[in-house]
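Table S2 (continued). Query chain:
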Amino acid sequence: MSHKKRIYTSDLTDEQWELIKPLLPLERDGPGRPLELDLRAVLNGIFYLNRTGCQWVDIPREYPAPSSISYHYNKWKEDGTWRRINQALRTQERVRVSRNPEPTVGSIDNQSVKTTAFPGVRGYDAGKKVNGRKRHIVVDTIGNLLEVVVHPADIQDRDDAKLVLEKLSKQTQASLLKLWANSGYSGKLIDWVKENREITLEIVSRDPGVKGFQLLPRRWVVERTFSWFDRYRRLSKDYERSLASSEAMVYIASIHTMLKRLPPVS
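Corresponding output:
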């Protein structure tokens, strides 16, 4: 059944739906009635919330009931569907631009964001003067998201970098040879990455003689990825109660971004 009467800019096109449909768990697990809900409409509702930053109860009536949308969002968060879709689309995007399916070089960085009044873990980033959480991401040289970890903002870059590197898939860990990072990742972390992940961590530093903004070689790629995510208002702050939900919202923004770049299924 269809719940759509109006088209929103965050909605999937027919071509984008054909790309993502094979990656969804469309079969119901266990006994029960067959799934009757329009999963394309469910996805559109989730993308609408992620892009506009609205609350669940304010999702437009053209979509299924907010409770049905949030049910699937949470189910796919808990079973790793969002992460798997992101990995699959990232591989497709790399092949599309004539790259190897798994990257050999990438960039690592983090972003501190404020949290809201909702309960949940948080911390104070004294350097950036932000009380909230950090989004720690690794991207390839195109800017595609390889992995994300969200944690309290009071954890130092050298410590939380290990969390996101350990979360990388086995295939990505095996292929990665080098990561570009800023000076916040210098010190003992360089040796740890080399010994435990066999990856060279190369620090790209600012020129101390230049004042103001600098476009750092290699580093602009991961910064551009964060700018892509800034277009999604749900990520303007961390509105989520759990760290897992915070990570899921980043995966969803990444998925929506890649769907816009991938060509239609032939």
